Amino acid sequence: MGLRIQHRIFERDNLPVEFSPAIMEKFRQLIARYPEGRQKSALLPILHIAQEESGGHLRVDVMDFVAEMLQVQPVEVYEVATFYTQFRLEKTGKYLIEVCRTAPCAICGGEDILDRICSRLGVQDGETTADGLITVQSVECLGACGSAPVLQVNTEFHENLSLEKVDELLNDLKKNAETEKDGKLKWAEKFC
Amino acid sequence: MGRKILLEKIDIPGINTFDGYRAEGGFSTVERALRSMKPDEVTEEVRISGLRGRGGAGFPTGLKWSFLDRKSNNPRYLVCNADESEPGTFKDRFLMERNPYLLIEGLILSSYALGSNTTFIYVRGEFKYIIGILEKAISETRKKGFLGKDILGTGYSLEIYVHSGAGAYICGEETALLESLEGKRGNPRIKPPFPAVKGLYGCPTVVNNVETLASIVPILAMGGMEYVKIGIGRSTGTKLISACGNINNPGVYEIELGLPVEEFLYSAEYCGGIKNGKELKAVIPGGSSVPVLPASLVCRTASGEPRLMSYESLADGGFATGSMLGSGGFIVFDEDACMVRSTWNLSRFYHHESCGQCSPCREGTGWMEKVLHRIESGHGRQEDIDLLVSIAAKIEGNTICPLGDAAAWPVASAIRHFREEFEFHVNNPALVSNPRHISFAKHSQVHV
Ligand SMILES: Cc1cc2nc3c(=O)[nH]c(=O)nc-3n(C[C@H](O)[C@H](O)[C@H](O)COP(=O)(O)O)c2cc1C
Ligand code: SF4
Ligand code: FES
Q1: Domains in chain B: boundaries
Q2: 3-state secondary structure of B415
Q3: Measuring CA to CA, which residue among A34, A47, A191 is closest to residue B131?
């Protein structure tokens, strides 16, 4: 995470927060993993699912909903959501491309990969394309340095990248966007 | 040399399924330990084996387990550290992906030894597919009666749960990990009290690395006395090394501790030498947090002895001419790598990952990143180099957790061994002002 020292005003948008019965059941199962009275422990796993179900970022209302479910103060959720890099508070593209920028990837061409993606999409690191399809974000070591350079699309690994492979990937994403409803890997399916 | 015990069966088809693993003798140590050994006898085997923590610090596992407060009336917990976020390290991912049941078996043995009835695996959030693999392995194992209530009718009960992180290197530090597991920010705790006394939910807790816990299986299978014979001196057993950077065969290798670094780096069985026939420039042998070794100190120590892949040999010469085995993240730089740029890159990493609790780390990492960037982009001043050394020295040893040291050592060691390269940057701003001058070192002909 790190030093995202920032002053942020948490404003509610008063839009409804609703999760399907299946997802609510997942939440209950996750909470049940932790000892009596320690339901707050389920916060990170639940936020992952809540974020994905809410379209890729955490609205304040969603965080408040989670706080109520876990019987903690809203601020206890906000402080966690702002600490961990995988939780996103801004609107994020359908596909989040996270490009590793740390030294082992960088010495294997990782910086060129990031440049290529940004220039092909016409965005800067951290930005989302105008059509809301793709967000590009540089991240720190993804624990896959042996197949550098590496990136993730919605936490799906793409490894041993080359400029050609990246071009192909971007084309695929645009193509898939029309047919695919969501990203491929769903948190809720992985847990429990 | 070349003995494999963790990855021995990795290529057997179906080893990543319960039945395939079981057919290869999997879970037989659990049957034996739970039926015929007392928990303390399991701990004793681990102590005898001389196994040292594979997460980075190399602390003897048996000793760590002996510190667990067994008198407390609170529940005891085992937590498996699968955060794997040290740059250059990707061995636990490999093990969990290819041989997940080995970890589950190790977790059952270790939980039994420690008296934990609820054990957590803390996996970094970016490894989502690994979480899926582990969840499946746990549920299969449970179906077959090796997890759950009254395992194999022995009266011992155990549940294992996977818990996901969400992108924070600091959560690999054991007390930050525990905070994160409790649903909080990953701010490391002040020690003492140590987790062995007050850990998860204030209860006695042991935190061990994935590879450490997987190693418990072969230790119990062969006995601590046999395990001690593998390896060299106090570096017993085998170690997974994840090799990356400018080499021909990046990947995860299991080595017997004591293997000469030269053999590891150049033989076709392992790294296969430097890519594209280039010259070696430097190696960070144990994950980004340990000191960098210049080419001249990689295969030999300062006294001319062959350098070995062991805790002792890699540390030979202390910080002046040695480094550390650390997590086994072996990062190789070829002659084209710019040490200033790489050091700046790592400083940025530590600044980004500092939790911000202590000022030497929070401010110091930021300053190091800034000053290094200044030098790297051709705006450096002569006094900047000593300024960096002084910032590093002020962070080291003055922080709550070792991330401060981990941020200081790469900078201090890079300047110690590659000072001319930093000076070259300061003295030749025009040559280095291109921000992407990866092959700077080559045309400047310094320190090859
Ligand atoms: C900043 C920091 C990051 C760490 N990251 C990891 C990690 O990703 N995985 C790990 O096993 N240990 C990591 N450690 C070491 C743990 O604190 C702890 O020592 C280790 O999990 C103990 O297990 P072991 O005795 O089996 O090695 C880290 C330590 C620090 C200070
Ligand atoms: S040393 Fe750094 S990461 Fe560790 S507690 Fe202090 S500020 Fe946080
Ligand atoms: S540095 Fe990119 S995955 Fe580790």
Answers
A1: 18-229, 232-334, 339-447
A2: helix
A3: A191
The pair of structure tokens assigned to B233 is: 């001196």
Q: Is A62 part of the contact surface with chain B (CB cutoff 8 Å)?
A: no
At B254-266, the pLDDT tens digits run 999 999 999 999 9
Nearest to B183 among A1, A43, A108 (CB): A43
B340-382 pLDDT per residue, tens? 999 999 999 999 999 999 999 999 999 999 999 999 999 999 9
Given the CA of residue B401, which atom of ligand 2 is nearest to it?
A: 4
Q: Which of residues 126-155 of A touch B (CB under 8 A)?
A: 139-148, 152, 155
Look up residue A168 and give its two tokens.
Answer: 């192909």
Query: Residue ranges of the domains in chain A?
Result: 21-83, 95-176
Contact A141 B88 (CB under 8 A): yes
A-chain residue closest to B287, CA distance: A104
* Beta-carbon separation of A185 and B128 below 8 A: yes
Contacts for B32-35 with beta carbons within 8 Å, 24 or more apart? B32/B220, B33/B109, B33/B112, B33/B220, B34/B108, B34/B112, B34/B151, B34/B152, B34/B154, B34/B156, B35/B152, B35/B154
Instruction: Report ipTM for this prediction.
Output: 0.95
Residue B3 pLDDT class (50, 70, 90 cuts):
confident
CATH 3.40.309.10 fits A95-176, yes or no: no
Residue whose structure tokens are 């392992």: B270
CB contacts under 8 A, B 24-63 vs A, are: none
Prediction pTM value = 0.96
The answer to whether B186 contacts chain A (CB < 8 Å) is: yes
Ligand nearest to the CA of B401: 2
Q: Which fold has domain B232-334?
A: Ubiquitin-like (UB roll) (3.10.20)
Closest ligand to B289 CA?
Answer: 1
Contact B9, B99 (CB under 8 A): yes
Is any atom of ligand 3 closer than 6 Å to the C-beta of A150? Answer: yes
Q: For B18-229, which CATH superfamily applies?
A: NADH-ubiquinone oxidoreductase 51kDa subunit (3.40.50.11540)
Q: pLDDT tens across B266-278, in order?
A: 999 999 999 999 9
CATH code 1.20.1440.230 for B339-447 = yes
The residue in chain A having the minimum alpha-carbon distance to the alpha carbon of residue B94 is A144
